[in-house]
Amino acid sequence: MHELIKVEAVSGVKGSIVQLKCPYNAADENKIVWFIKKSETSPATQITDGLNINPSLPSDLKSRLTVTGDHAAGEYHLSISDVRESDAGTYTCILYGTVGVTTLQLNVITNIPTSVSLENVGLDKKLNGKEGQNLIIRCSAVGGNPVPDVKLLISESVVAVSKQSVQYTLSYVNRSHDGQNIQCMAGYEEMHYYPLNDTARIYLKLKPYPPRFSSDSVNTEENKPLVISCTSTGSRPKASIYWLLGDGKTNITAYATQLPPSHDPTTDTYSVTSTLTYSMHRIYNGKYMICGARNEATLEQGGGVETSKTLNITYAPDITVNSSTYTQNDAIRKVICNPSGNPNIYTYHKWQHKSRYGEIIREFNGNKTLTLPDVPVLLRYQDSGEYVCSASNGIIDNENKFKQTGSGLVTVRAQPVFTSDTIDRVKQFGEIHKTVDIYINVISDPKFTSFVWARDGTSIKTQNSAKYQSSSSPTIVKDTIHGKEVQLYSYNVTLAINDLKAEDFVNYTVTLKSGFPDVKFTIALESASIPDIPGNFSQRDTAFTSFTVQWDPGSDGVYKQTFYIQYRVQGSSEWTIVAAGDEDINEQRRRRTYEVRNLQEGKAYELRMYAENTAMKRSNFTDVLIVFTKSSGTNCIFLMLL
């Protein structure tokens, strides 16, 4: 009894010689016999007995059979020459006297494939791909019976084997794959027989290497052109360079020039250099500048290959000053200067204290923190105003200025303070049977919360009163602050008394209430007549920042009179008042002129005037005169009745 211990498939090409190897070695007492079975249903036919060929076999088969091998070593292999399709079948090798049986299935290759080829390979034998993408390699054989094996090798390493055709994907090919050899073979693996092959080499479109800047750091001064270059190498095909700036990646490539690319024949790659000339703004200090390169290998991946540098932009400082609020009870009052520039080392110049309207009140030595000199509590309100800090860091600005300035407002909240012109008006005057306005001007920050009038110590009810009406409104006055006369924002508080009687010429006191102690001021109302309204109030001349007006004085009410002009930019609510001269009682009347200065160019101004005598009687206002300061246009004058 024999045991089947091995089954193998063997292929042979039609017309060739095939050797069927028996794995057993025959001893003297044993012999090896070969059998053939053409199909599963056909009986087995003995072919050999030891070295002898079965004489009953067809002659065309018998003549092509030979027992080969090292017979002395007990080898009895079966060789078939001029293999034919009819030779296909199951061949069995039996070692008699043992359980050894081996079956070999002979397949006859009647037609080898006629050709094999790699797809997408041109005459230059290049298989094109792109760095960073998948490269699909396909190879197919034409013909072959049985179906041939197709084997794919990359750099002599087998990567895939399949029937008739093969496909292999190189994932995310990189620069190391470039130039590798590809070989595709067609044949039969079990025979190690590959008569056909096709070759190519991988040729990639290569991304450029990350660009290199021409300097390790990028330093420049604001508003001065920065000139910097970057170079990209290793690209195939040639790359183009682009420039991006800041967090928003603003494209500034238009400000760069690019040299023609250079070619490296040893690697078949390109290098390119771009030079950027651009004036930087301080907002980009500490931000990234990006130099990027792109070509066909990068475009489909959403961008290029980029290198960034942090910008160091030196610039003159912007200066802010803390706007602080104090009260009259704060003994220590400080103003802090905050320059912001690069570099951040500063020289401080003199501080200036200005009025709300830009007039210089005083100056202090320069430093970052200004501690205001102490003054009596009731004078601390005079510290209110604009504080201007000047500093420099060695960098000039775009206006070629070395010293930079900034300002903040200091507010000292205090009890109301009556202005000097109010204190000078202790006596005010009215006329019998007429209406008189008695008033005070007061500096109040915060604005007083309420005010009440009293007549000889008795409160006056002004609401719904036919005799008395009270009001308050903002105004601008001149007064002395820290020894300097300047314009000040203040409030006018007025009491109108109608149909004056003899008994109305008494003392009137106004009391102002705020978050601080109440303040009072008493006015003595005396009898007097009112000066006439100035006549023929008109423009005489105009300039860019000034204009001249003229008028004819009227009756002075038997008192020395002073002429006042009020003006404001058309559309604003606050009037500015200037004293425009005096006329004594015995002075001969003549036409008067006055030049209003320090105005804005090309603006329309509203003007009106009145006269006031030393009896504190004030005339009514003139009609409003509208005058234009000069500009590139034409000056016009309008007279408006209000």
Note the main attributes of this structure:
single chain; mainly beta; Immunoglobulin-like; 6 domains; seven-stranded mixed sheet; six-stranded mixed sheet; 3 helices; 53 strands; disordered C terminus
Oligomeric state of the chains? single chain
CATH class of the largest domain: Mainly Beta
What's the architecture of the largest domain, going by CATH?
Answer: Sandwich
Shape: rod-shaped
Main location: membrane
Subcellular location: Membrane
Domain Ig-like: 14-109, 211-312, 317-394
InterPro entries: CD80_C2-set, Cell_adhesion_signaling, FN3_dom, FN3_sf, Ig-like_dom, Ig-like_dom_sf, Ig-like_fold, Ig_sub
Protein model, in words:
With 642 residues, the chain is mainly beta. It has 6 domains: 3-109, Immunoglobulin-like, CATH 2.60.40; 115-205, Immunoglobulins (Immunoglobulin-like, Sandwich), CATH 2.60.40; 212-315, Immunoglobulin-like; 322-412, Immunoglobulins (Immunoglobulin-like, Sandwich); 417-527, Immunoglobulin-like (Sandwich), CATH 2.60.40.10; 535-640, Immunoglobulins (Immunoglobulin-like), CATH 2.60.40. Helix content is 2%, strand content 53%. It contains 3 helices and 53 strands. The strands form 12 sheets. Strands 20, 22, 23, 27, 28, 30 and 34 form a 7-stranded mixed beta sheet that branches. Strands 29, 31, 32, 33, 35 and 36 form a 6-stranded mixed beta sheet that branches. Strand 17 and strand 18 form a beta hairpin. The longest helix is centred in the first third of the chain and has 4 residues, at 59-62. It is rod-shaped, with a radius of gyration of 56 Å. The termini are far apart. Residues 634-642 have low confidence and may be disordered.
